[in-house]
Amino acid sequence: MRIVVTNCNTTAQMTEEIVQGARAAAAPGTTVTGLTPAWGPESAEGWLDSHLSAAAVLDTLRTYDGPPYDAVVLAGFGEHGREGVRELVDVPVVDITEAAAHLACLLGRRYGVITTLDRSRGQIEDSLETAGVARNCATVLGTGLAVLDLTTDPTRTETAFLTAATQAQAAGAEVLILGCAGMTGLQRKLSSQLRLPIVDGVSAAVKLAESLVTLGLTTSRTGSYARPLPKRRVWGRPQPT
Amino acid sequence: MRIVVTNCNTTAQMTEEIVQGARAAAAPGTTVTGLTPAWGPESAEGWLDSHLSAAAVLDTLRTYDGPPYDAVVLAGFGEHGREGVRELVDVPVVDITEAAAHLACLLGRRYGVITTLDRSRGQIEDSLETAGVARNCATVLGTGLAVLDLTTDPTRTETAFLTAATQAQAAGAEVLILGCAGMTGLQRKLSSQLRLPIVDGVSAAVKLAESLVTLGLTTSRTGSYARPLPKRRVWGRPQPT
Amino acid sequence: MRIVVTNCNTTAQMTEEIVQGARAAAAPGTTVTGLTPAWGPESAEGWLDSHLSAAAVLDTLRTYDGPPYDAVVLAGFGEHGREGVRELVDVPVVDITEAAAHLACLLGRRYGVITTLDRSRGQIEDSLETAGVARNCATVLGTGLAVLDLTTDPTRTETAFLTAATQAQAAGAEVLILGCAGMTGLQRKLSSQLRLPIVDGVSAAVKLAESLVTLGLTTSRTGSYARPLPKRRVWGRPQPT
Amino acid sequence: MRIVVTNCNTTAQMTEEIVQGARAAAAPGTTVTGLTPAWGPESAEGWLDSHLSAAAVLDTLRTYDGPPYDAVVLAGFGEHGREGVRELVDVPVVDITEAAAHLACLLGRRYGVITTLDRSRGQIEDSLETAGVARNCATVLGTGLAVLDLTTDPTRTETAFLTAATQAQAAGAEVLILGCAGMTGLQRKLSSQLRLPIVDGVSAAVKLAESLVTLGLTTSRTGSYARPLPKRRVWGRPQPT
Amino acid sequence: MRIVVTNCNTTAQMTEEIVQGARAAAAPGTTVTGLTPAWGPESAEGWLDSHLSAAAVLDTLRTYDGPPYDAVVLAGFGEHGREGVRELVDVPVVDITEAAAHLACLLGRRYGVITTLDRSRGQIEDSLETAGVARNCATVLGTGLAVLDLTTDPTRTETAFLTAATQAQAAGAEVLILGCAGMTGLQRKLSSQLRLPIVDGVSAAVKLAESLVTLGLTTSRTGSYARPLPKRRVWGRPQPT
Amino acid sequence: MRIVVTNCNTTAQMTEEIVQGARAAAAPGTTVTGLTPAWGPESAEGWLDSHLSAAAVLDTLRTYDGPPYDAVVLAGFGEHGREGVRELVDVPVVDITEAAAHLACLLGRRYGVITTLDRSRGQIEDSLETAGVARNCATVLGTGLAVLDLTTDPTRTETAFLTAATQAQAAGAEVLILGCAGMTGLQRKLSSQLRLPIVDGVSAAVKLAESLVTLGLTTSRTGSYARPLPKRRVWGRPQPT
């Protein structure tokens, strides 16, 4: 089985880290292909970045010409595009935001999300709400760290995460979710220290995608996620000739 | 005061109709400037179109180099982009989806939305929910007509609208909302026939935008809608050189 | 256009301040007429006052014999009566509670209301809920100041407001609402200091009322807000003769 | 124990019927005193009537000079005033709307309310919502009969009730509530025919009031229902002298 | 009238205390019969205990062979079994969790529950939610005391309760609920000290059960709570012979 | 990896069918062990059965003495016990009700559940609600077929399912869920006919359990699902000696 994992930004280094995380979670027979959009933001932080990212990710999948794949994992935590990709492709589509929440609901009564900047909290809340899994979300908290800063100083990142984790537990969280694809890996370091399950969205999405593929399930074409209608679409500013 | 009204698709004819509707609603001192994105879908029907449209609208406003404006009206019913535009510009931003709902809440206890294709219902429901005005929405109904077909046969459009209106009333709607910018004008023909107020989102958004400008109010920069962070962003597929 | 603004209490001085605020917000062609009920409470603080006020305001409008008007603004924050007035008059009716919330939703993701006494919080929450705009309300907070004390010591009022504003921001508010008609004017002084938009309900209601009138929209008579049935009604304790 | 039952309108005949219903439900040691407001609407149908009624009921209790009482039952289904009366008196206050819903929740998973005119549905929904018992309400339905017509043709009333009952069951109701104090008595005739429990609000409120009195419980003065502040209040239009 | 009160655990001493509380609340003509399950947990703390308790309570009522009874009170705060008992018996069934909440809603705008261990909070929240009375619940708080420790050191229990009461008030509670049948009696000691109404579920359930019996109301057999289907059921591990 | 799948009833034939379904979904390295409770109901239909089943399932797992296992799948659709099992065992626990809903949310905007008897609808709704996945549930519908009748006449079962499926789609469902473990297998026959994804809870739960095990995730012990406290518990009526 081949799973395509799309980064939501143009930073290839981040795609690699995400692919590593995805491969660590994947079953033996699963091949993971990472895609980095050729355009979009270098990191997605805020609504404008998220809207730009959604179009770029759609364009990336629309023009993909590699080997056939069985599922798509969207590796932008809280980013837009999920529903459009469900229209576009015929295979199952799993977004890391919803994936983490689905697994977290199985592990405790309330979960908390720990993300990067405070400005991303609203997007994540909306994404969980429309995915239908917000009911058991106790809180979404920021660490104050930008996406591209997560890996520059691992100790600072861990400390910021632990501080937010304490707040999340006080708000009722019994499970934590890594609220950024760039945090992948942190769950292994911090879970035993916090004595709490920590769910990484990339890993969760890979397992859910594999599950759907194995069960022969894919997106319903009845209603919301019908195939895009054929029409004229231009994907980016026309160039002067 | 100048209000920029952005069409969500690339069909200039539709921009003109929207601008006409906007001008009909505008106060004497208000200038309405219509913008048609240079890229994007020729009509927005479904999530993929909506995600593409959001990026194109943002790009259109980002690269706008006309006279200064005092407010932005986003004329795509149920389309994405609202929050990103709030980050981008320093003036008030009003989306026609939320605008129609805000005014409808003042006119009756429950409102209904009548839109084009059934596939757009989910987007509209989500847009109303995240805008905070879904509580009094009795139903969102489709007419089965595509966006670009609305004007080809006005009698068919009116009949389809009246059929859906009856269903909406049965579901509890006391006020109706035109669920597509391309329906602008229909409210004048059908309101007295139906003996119900019908709210057009474009008109509603123009009045709300004027209201905010007059009161000196604009988007809060504290929290969700802070200015976009400076970073590298590419707005469309790089061209081969 | 003429807008009638009804004070919810019998204190004429407060009507004047409200009318001043309304006039400051009104468009050039709008005439604002203030009405002070001849009976009711001298200030509305709590449910009993609110119920008394609602009947008095209805009676005031029912027996009004001045020049015709185009809209009614109800200037009691969190007070009852809104729906009854919608039944009574044929023109649009806008309550300052809902009006402030409608505009606040356009300016940030969550809003907070800062009111007078803690005892008023429940009424305001219920009023926002039934108006359909409570979803984005982060908090309703009291300042501990009574309605008629707001103007006696402006410095104390400002200090109390600023303290509550800080709490509201901590609760997630990105926009603030003045939760009492008697606070009108405060938004101009404090908005830049707090670097947050502050919405005054009186101003907001005037603009929304003007918007509805301009668009030719008025209350739906289908369903909830049908005209009152003709029947015997006595408006106050019969006097001994 | 003495329970004061206040009619919400000025029709003394209706007070008598309500008192009869209350007495039929009361415990041996309970004395029921009926109060008919000296002013207000002759029947409460719609918001305007409800607001007028609330003030009249408050005035009636405020000026009551009979023997001391232990609890108040408010016998207006869906009418305003509940919270104001809780501020006014020191004894428990039970509104028949909430009372019926509280008992109905104990008898089945979802309940339905059958009321008089459709225009009253909204008020009832709001009253249940703010009382905290709307969650298990499957539907609120009208019979098309006006309050004062309920007793003129009992067969018509029963037929209309049975028709609405069928609709309510289809909507999921497992228990029915009589949505008007003037329907009291109907539960005895129709419950076995429908093979469903039917809850009458007047009876329910009497039992709940007795329960609270017996347990020594009364309204909390902390927070929302603090005593009315001393101030100048005028209860009705001052008379020309 | 005879009311059967079932303890949720096997501790007969606790049954006696509950029966005492029930008798103190019962009307003169009401006989209270306490039942202690012959199997189950010695105290119910957590979900496993609650599930075990539910089956044991059902078995206790199923095999009851004493004098006929008119109602059942389930005296396990937050414990499972309520709906199953409604299927089993033909008389009204009142659970102390919901009973306390129903009365609390009549006494203040928001109520708080103070229970034993933190681990019980989730069960109580779910029980209130599915009973339809969670809307006005401000908070559910633990005292850190185990069920069987409540009576060992009354001073410690009171102190822990008072501490939690302060937190509950800060969270908006205007009324408190004793969140464990073993706390019965505490309301008399602490209500005046806290100047808040405190509702004891056992007393509340007795009054509600009496109310239903007096009004001739019992569980609806239409829909959810139909009689159990005849089938083979084994109530506990078959013994080796 | 070994997954223990517990039937919720004592019918061994049904355990076998469930185990077959589970094995069909399991990964190559997964061993599925079916457990049939030695006591409980022969089929679970209604609340009483569900409460009895929960205790029996807990007892079955508590006294299990087979080879170690890595996860538990609870194969009773809408039945109680989930949370208690999470307390009892140290490995991940997945209930087929929640499992089906989690996967269904990934496949369409709204899902519908088709179950056996109407009386089970309430339990399923509550189970989805407390699991945190009810938001996207469009409807829960019964087929009128008892659990043990599902396999006696496959044609009748399919016809009944298809009828309910049409109703579910009319209610907005874009994905269907088999609302009984005894329906396992039906998804393969009917999915292409209905042109809709159909999710079987047993298969879904197996995949989710495997996912959690692979990712090294298990139930949080912080808060709700702490280990059961050591205490005296009796699991079934003591036998006369």
From TrEMBL, chains A, B, C, D, E, F:
It holds the Pfam family Asp_Glu_race. It comes from the Bacteria. Its EC number is 5.1.99.5. It catalyses: a D-5-monosubstituted hydantoin = a L-5-monosubstituted hydantoin; D-5-benzylhydantoin = L-5-benzylhydantoin. One of its GO terms (molecular function) is amino-acid racemase activity. Belongs to the HyuE racemase family. This is Hydantoin racemase. It comes from Streptomyces bauhiniae.
